[in-house]
Design goal:
Layout: H1 8-26, H2 30-39, H3 44-50, H4 55-73, H5 76-79, H6 84-99, H7 103-113, H8 119-136, H9 144-165, H10 173-196, H11 206-214
Length: about 220
């Protein structure tokens, strides 16, 4: 049971897990909101008002609740001993485990987020989750890498969710294999990008080599 939320945002976050459970049966609807509120001892009318903006507000609350649980369960100090690819894998796997009990709600949420009118909000939510994961993984980039990393991870996470939503393999083995391949692709890309963007003096230059051969250092 939820103890008196102090704000509508608090109410949305507190109700999100129960709402996801109700959405398995009732979809992302006011019926699900009222069922979740009743189960958690919250005034159903107050809950309906908190989610008056409709399904995307409900889905956003679920995503924000997962973001918060992820940050609490996997702080940077816990991930520090891992390699960067292991950190990203652990963070995405945490999110997959969080939605696993509510796969039907996930499928319905993905369908709603894919609607053209919901694309801006869906992209913003995806960016926020990717940003949260990179920050927990220890990323401190402030240049354009900040943006490319989040766009890349956001696309990987979205694709992995789509695979996961329809994965019937044992222990979601197909999703795990898909995620491993995508992370490996990103690591290769980041290494290649790092080589291309090394400081000019660190890169091999045929012209500089010929100059040194012609005018050897004394």
């Amino acid at each position: 049971m939820i103890t008196s939320p102090t704000s509508l945002d608090d109410m949305r976050l507190a109700l999100a897990p129960a709402l996801a459970e109700a959405a398995v049966w009732d979809g992302w609807s006011e019926t699900a909101v009222r069922a979740a509120a009743a189960a958690q001892g919250v005034d159903p009318d107050a809950a309906a008002f908190a989610f008056k903006d409709g399904p995307m507000a409900m889905i956003a609350a679920w995503i924000h609740a997962i973001d918060a649980d992820m940050a609490a369960s996997l702080p940077l100090e816990r991930l520090a001993a891992m390699k960067i690819r292991e950190r990203i894998h652990a963070l995405i796997q945490f999110r997959l485990d969080a939605v696993a009990p509510h796969k039907e709600a996930l499928r319905r949420a993905l369908a709603i987020m894919a609607m053209p009118q919901n694309a801006p909000k869906a992209l913003k939510l995806g960016w926020g989750s990717a940003d949260a994961m990179w920050r927990l993984a220890g990323d401190v980039a402030t240049d354009y890498n900040h943006y490319t990393k989040r766009m890349t991870l956001g696309s990987i996470y979205a694709a992995t969710l789509a695979v996961f939503a329809n994965d019937e393999s044992a222990d979601h083995a197909d999703t795990r294999a898909f995620l491993d391949r995508r992370i490996e692709d990103v690591m290769r890309f980041e290494k290649a990008k790092g080589r291309l963007l090394r400081p000019r003096e660190e890169m091999f230059s045929p012209a500089r080599l010929l100059g040194r051969l012609r005018y050897p250092a004394r």
